[in-house]
Design brief:
The protein has 205 residues and is an alpha+beta fold. It has helices at residues 6-14, 48-51, 54-68, 107-122, 160-171, 174-181, 184-190, 196-204, and strands at residues 2-3, 17-22, 25-30, 36-41, 74-81, 86-92, 97-98, 125-127, 135-137, 143-145, 151-153. The chain is built from eight helices and eleven strands.
Length: 205
């Protein structure tokens, strides 16, 4: 981990677009060179976030996905920012548009989405933040993942209950569910067959 000086941080910050922030300050900066800087607060109280902090999960998950052949962002460096009491991950974004941004979520793409989810489940990937805004369609016409701090990767394929939870996460946003429901049959035919009736109930809700 490198230390990011106040001078260099302020130089980056001056030309950056703040794409996410909360009451504690900036969370994500889109830098002038097209890369991103994601900032993480340092937890002071004893918790799992102290033992395995979110910045480490974020960077580690990106590395694990790459090993599994799943497209995601590429980490450049991890920084300690003492004057802000923050840790930051500097990364190259995954190029493309999220499925939420894509104007034409047609039957073919919805079918591919279903197959993509099955492939994630078979690789043991569980995403509590799964939604169409976290799945990217790249210029190479492939699907990939972003916003993966809450992701867990098991050593074997996901059990039935976690597969169902992943579909629950995907269908919890009305806008996302409505767009998938337009091509309901294509989506269901591509999804996990054993739990297809439960997936249908979520899509039809």
């Amino acid at each position: 981990m490198l230390e990011l000086s106040q001078k260099k941080y302020e130089l980056w910050r001056s030309g950056a677009e703040v794409t996410a922030a909360d009451q504690f300050g900036d969370k994500v900066l889109h830098l002038e060179d097209g890369t991103y800087l994601k900032l993480f607060r340092i937890k002071r109280l004893f918790s799992s976030a102290r033992l395995f902090p979110y910045w480490r999960r974020f960077a580690s998950n990106a590395s694990r996905l790459a090993e599994l052949g799943v497209l995601t962002f590429t980490v450049r460096e991890i920084y300690d920012i003492p004057h802000l009491d923050r840790t930051a991950v500097h990364y190259d974004p995954l190029p493309g548009q999220t499925l939420r941004q894509t104007e034409c979520l047609d039957a073919g793409l919805v079918d591919r989405l279903g197959r993509f989810l099955v492939s994630l489940h078979d690789r043991g990937i569980y995403l509590r933040s799964l939604h169409l805004g976290n799945i990217v369609l790249t210029p190479g016409d492939e699907l990939g993942l972003i916003d993966i701090a809450d992701m867990r990767i098991r050593s074997s394929s996901l059990p039935r209950r976690l597969r169902i939870r992943n579909y629950h996460h995907l269908c919890r946003y009305d806008e996302d569910r409505a767009r998938i429901a337009i091509h309901r049959n294509e989506f269901l035919s591509a999804c996990d067959p054993v739990i297809r009736p439960k997936i249908a109930a979520m899509v039809d809700n």
